[in-house]
């Protein structure tokens, strides 16, 4: 039994059992048919499980009909769980906290559906939603699902130009927004970006939630207040069945550079896999757990593991409007203590930020209610994994390190907390029902541990994207051309270790070629963070005339080490120490050409590091669009900094 084996007590109560692996291996389609009937209420049962005759365009649960909103709300009320809290809403300033039960949720979603219908929204119409982490955003998403009107959520930190591109591509009929949002205690405008974005688009109506009370420009005939349209609407609405392949939502990827891809997800398969994975990976027991996914609702994690997965299960969860450092650096742990959160699903970037702030902050709070921890968004380095377990999980709590994408729709690789002996830093293996392998350039499965290859999905899965909106050729070219029409190339580099665990190494774009050696930026970042003085690191590959590419590192020091760097020849001694540390951990070929010590890294509001901006700095290019950053001034500080060049 390893240090990271599940305890007998946990294994006994776990939702995900070892038998699932055997069942999935015996019959792929029968396995998923069973999950669909276990986790989804069908208005009409499906005739066949999978139609893959037109690969790579899949149809799952063919002939079946369901309503996603009914599955997420109404059926729980009908089952007698209307008094169960669906959402513990924690407001940014603590002045508007409220608990919303499933019965209240049913009424609010019905009102929103009736309100949207009164604005002319019908089945098939697209609705753009540019809103923050407030309950009305969830009401709107589920109302769209109820009507069969695909929603296109746009992260509320995107610029007006990025929003316009998405409204235009989706041909959205209605845009939902709020007057403003609270960021670190201050009211910030939101509708202003919509006013700029909708000019010249097909959008007929802008529906506005009053959140901050800020003054907004008003366009008579186009703009409508939520409280005038939705609040007085009838609080009953009959959900209509939709085909299993009816479009549920579009979610655009690729940031603001190039033409964004509208990733299309449909109803039956997506809901099945979201509910199943939320149950077996996060070990959700709806009758007793309080679950918290800290992602922003504008990203796919917010779609799958705030709205559709947990609500299909009938779980109680936290929705937090604020940020990890506002009103103070202990707010996450204060929420965990107050609401007795039992399952926490967050990002490695957030974990490394908590590490930087120090363990004494979470130590002030009672975190004993936590029994499952999760990681999502990018590979987590082993050092952060262990810190998370020791200081947040009391040294015993299992961590599910999950790998998946906007395109996959739901979790693909992850340990099962009641079954798997955990390996810090690795998503380990495909979950039951998923087939993923690491292949070489010729499409052969790698067998040598530590040989770097490509992560490829070799069988279709229910939550898979059904295409790129209005661009089937781009869908085929982007995802299905590298290894043939039956093999989905995820775009990520990966390797096996000697135990057979899969290690995700980040985007193939982030696998550098230095003098003919393939190096993973994630691996070098992990080595840097393993150093006792480093809190966080980001690595990019920059063009180099001699080696092809060179390693450029950007490092945030732990607070006690920052003053040392200031006194030690402007950090020169420490930087040499860090470069030597990477050479020792990985090899001399991985030594960074330069290391810049910075106070912060460029991150989106969801905590994702924007490495393309660091690459611009490393290659002395004009820095690209910074509108998605939580703090755009970070790039100004980095550009004014000095790199410490290699001297050997």
Would you give an account of this structure?
With 648 residues, the chain is of the alpha/beta class. It has two domains: 8-494, Rossmann fold; 515-645, 2-Layer Sandwich (GMP Synthetase, Chain A, domain 3), CATH 3.30.300. The protein is 32% helix and 23% strand. It is built from 20 helices and 31 strands. The strands form eight sheets. It has an eight-stranded mixed sheet, sandwiched between helices. A seven-stranded mixed sheet has the order 5-4-17-16-18-19-20, sandwiched between helices. Helix 13 (348-357) links the parallel strand 18 and strand 19. It starts with 7 loop residues before the first helix and ends with a strand.
Poorly predicted regions are 642-648
Query: What strand line-up does the widest sheet have?
Result: 12-11-8-6-7-14-15-23
Q: Supply the CATH superfamily name of the largest domain.
A: ANL, N-terminal domain
Portion of residues within helices: 25-40%
| CATH structural architecture of the largest domain | 3-Layer(aba) Sandwich
Number of strands: 31
- Percentage of residues in strands: 15-25%
The backbone outline, from C-alpha atoms, is: globular
The structural class is alpha/beta
User: What Rg do the Cα atoms give?
Assistant: 24 Å
Figure out the total of helices: 20
Instruction: Please indicate the count of domains.
Output: 2
- Major beta sheet summary: 8 strands, mixed
CATH fold call of the largest domain: Rossmann fold
């Amino acid at each position: 039994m390893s240090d990271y084996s599940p305890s007998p007590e946990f294994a006994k109560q776990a939702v995900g059992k070892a038998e699932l692996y055997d069942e999935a291996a015996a019959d792929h389609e029968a396995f998923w048919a069973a999950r669909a009937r276990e986790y989804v209420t069908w208005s009409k049962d499906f005739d066949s499980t999978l139609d893959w005759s037109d690969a790579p365009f899949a149809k799952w649960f063919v002939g079946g009909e369901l309503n996603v909103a009914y599955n997420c709300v109404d059926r729980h009320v009908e089952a007698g769980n209307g008094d169960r809290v669906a959402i513990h809403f924690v407001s940014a300033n603590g002045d508007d906290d409220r608990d919303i039960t499933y019965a209240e949720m049913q009424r609010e979603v019905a009102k929103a559906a009736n309100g949207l219908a009164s604005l002319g929204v019908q089945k098939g119409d697209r609705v753009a939603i540019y809103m923050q982490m407030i309950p009305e955003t969830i009401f709107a998403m589920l109302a769209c699902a109820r009507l069969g009107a695909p929603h296109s959520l746009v992260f509320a930190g995107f610029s007006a130009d990025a929003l316009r591109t998405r409204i235009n591509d989706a041909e959205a009929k209605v845009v939902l927004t709020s007057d403003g949002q609270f960021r670190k205690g201050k009211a910030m405008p939101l509708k202003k970006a919509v006013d700029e974005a909708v000019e010249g688009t097909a959008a007929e109506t802008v529906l506005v939630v009053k959140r901050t009370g800020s003054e907004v420009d008003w366009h008579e005939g186009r703009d409508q207040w939520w409280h005038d349209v939705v609040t007085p609407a009838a609080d009953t609405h009959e959900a209509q069945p939709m085909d299993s392949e009816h479009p549920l939502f579009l979610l655009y990827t690729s940031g603001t550079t190039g033409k964004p891809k509208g990733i299309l997800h449909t109803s039956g398969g997506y809901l099945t896999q979201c509910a199943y994975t939320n149950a077996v990976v996060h070990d959700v027991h709806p009758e007793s757990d309080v679950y918290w996914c800290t992602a922003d609702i504008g990203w796919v994690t917010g779609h799958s593991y705030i709205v559709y997965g947990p609500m299909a299960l009938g779980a109680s969860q936290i929705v937090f409007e604020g940020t990890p450092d506002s009103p103070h650096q202990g707010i996450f742990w204060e929420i965990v203590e107050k609401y007795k959160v039992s399952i926490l699903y967050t990002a490695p970037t957030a974990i490394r930020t908590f590490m930087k702030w120090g363990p004494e902050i979470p130590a002030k709070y009672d975190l004993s209610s936590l029994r499952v921890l999760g990681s999502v968004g990018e590979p987590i380095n082993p050092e952060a994994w262990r810190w998370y377990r020791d200081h947040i999980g009391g040294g015993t709590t299992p961590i599910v390190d999950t790998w998946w994408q906007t395109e996959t729709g739901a979790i693909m690789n992850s340990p099962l907390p009641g079954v798997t002996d955990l390996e810090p830093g690795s998503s380990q293996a495909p979950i039951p029902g998923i087939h993923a392998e690491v292949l070489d350039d010729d499409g052969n499965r790698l067998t040598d541990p530590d040989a770097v290859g490509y992560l490829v999905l070799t069988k279709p899965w229910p939550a898979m994207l059904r295409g790129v909106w209005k661009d089937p050729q781009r869908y085929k070219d982007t995802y299905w051309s590298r290894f043939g029409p039956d093999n989905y190339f995820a775009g990520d580099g990966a390797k096996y270790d000697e135990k057979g665990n899969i290690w995700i190494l980040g985007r193939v774009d982030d696998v550098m070629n230095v003098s003919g050696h393939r190096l993973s930026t994630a691996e070098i970042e992990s080595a840097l963070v393993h150093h006792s003085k480093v809190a966080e690191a980001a690595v990019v590959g920059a063009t180099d005339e001699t080696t092809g590419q060179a390693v450029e590192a950007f490092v945030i020091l732990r607070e006690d080490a920052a003053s040392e760097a200031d006194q030690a020849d402007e950090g020169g001694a420490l930087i040499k120490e860090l470069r030597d540390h990477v050479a020792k951990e990985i090899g001399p070929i991985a030594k960074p050409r330069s290391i810049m010590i910075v106070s912060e890294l460029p991150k989106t509001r969801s905590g994702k590091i924007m490495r393309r901006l660091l690459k611009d700095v490393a290659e002395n290019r004009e820095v690209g669009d910074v509108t998605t950053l939580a703090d755009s001034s970070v790039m100004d500080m980095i550009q004014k900094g000095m790199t410490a060049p290699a001297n050997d």
